[in-house]
């Protein structure tokens, strides 16, 4: 024990505070990855326990029972069935909500039947008094055959007691609290006799669930104990009834609720927040406040970061020995990375607000509210979860569609989710809005830049809904679905949870984008610093001949040489080749290169321009925004980033599928290249035509 880590599996229904308990146990000592071979998210944390014992805490996906209806739930069952899995738990910690104990205990009784040492955590204990709830803990421990930790993850109460229970997990009985053979005594007896070395409830799960059990051939078990689908469903229903009868009997004596001391504030608040008129108005008002704040609050830190990287680039150019490596660092790597780092404040604020909405319980109300609208477009409220999640990133949002049982509804949601404005688009929107939209207030309250950002988010969501309507009419697939959403209790967001969520997601964005930016910055710097032929290699002579009759000071002369080299470098020649296709949209060849490079990831756009504008630039102290603002067309002398081209560019990024990772996850989730290719082609053409029309009208 002293030399081995304990494997602890955190299991529970959605919205019981399981992740809050996970954060209390592990803090920031967490790793996020995927289960082998699938894209279901896996969160593992590390925790120090009493007696110098360490624990690996595995936060399993939320599940209502071991009767799986989604891939997330299948992951939970397969882990609990297979002892050979390196993450197989030494102890299971089932987290429940004190207000929904009856429903939560169904999952607990099933896990106990697997004979894993199981600790019951009753969370949100701080709400017991206000809800008039009292619990007889010794009685519950006796009847449920476990040890109970009464905790408040929001306040951190009971966490140390939980750690003590985890350390002493070997003292907890393996005995089930309900004999599963009551489902069908004869059938279960024959099943046990056929496989005497196996737990009968594990065999039952292998028969009824689409999961793998490494110790036995699933087909062998099913063929020997075959039953019709309808008969298996009947037995599953009987199991659920028997378990709830047991739970009801236990809670009659173990849980008391005095309604005279409870308050019913939640119902009154729900009547307002889900109102058929005021509900939508409040939701839009919240969105408005969020996007106003993103621009207003982030200005100071963004300006500081922008100026710092410009100064750092200048310092590297002046203080380090001259040569290729210094040029690469000052003109390629530093400006490129700065093009991503500058947007950390805005992205962090976005994740902050999303986390607060989720933690408070309001996001579930939004799902319920939007169901009425979504049904008109062939979807349900369940599709809102991926669409809203898409404001962070389309990849986990598409993975979240696994909770949608109906294939047609799920497919449509996968295909339209990339229209939702993700955090990778935020850097593009932010820099372009800052360049072409005045930083002014309307009626003394409405910030034009914040309003523009909100409209872009609404445009993305609206386009996704409209596309869903069209696809619902085009795709001839059966569509029958039922919508059920759980309304969790309102609670004040836990600062620790929100903080961890913001740090982890912002870090994931920066690290993920940073790797791509670093690689692309080096490639772009090389392509922009070297070129073939006379026009590049003899740039100084050509400039002297061109301006033989014009007096240029030293700075102007150096800038003309840099411009001559850039236009005739490898990247300049590539840009010139594609310029005829993008010129009608109001873009020059430099923007064209940025668009092409950002097909790897949208956030690369700003970093690419920062690198291109820095190559050969004598004024390294100028910020990215100032360089973009000063850029002009050499033929016309007009600004490259004007109102018409800015709107065109934002519309292009609003609709274009510029994310290789999203295409890959679409392929994985649909098991076909047909759908991601259709996504790429349609969204690219639609983005091009929309940007073209906008520029031609506004120019």
UniProtKB/TrEMBL annotation:
Keywords: Cell membrane, GTP-binding, Ion transport, Iron, Iron transport, Magnesium, Membrane, Metal-binding, Nucleotide-binding, Transmembrane, Transmembrane helix, Transport. InterPro entries: Fe2_transport_prot-B, Fe2_transport_prot_B_C, FeoB_GTPase, G_FEOB_dom, Gate_dom, GTP-bd, P-loop_NTPase. Its main location: membrane. It is found in: Cell inner membrane; Cell membrane. The chain crosses the membrane at residues 277-295, 333-357, 377-399, 411-437, 449-471, 508-528, 643-665, 677-698. Probable transporter of a GTP-driven Fe(2+) uptake system. This is Ferrous iron transport protein B. It comes from Flavobacterium seoulense.
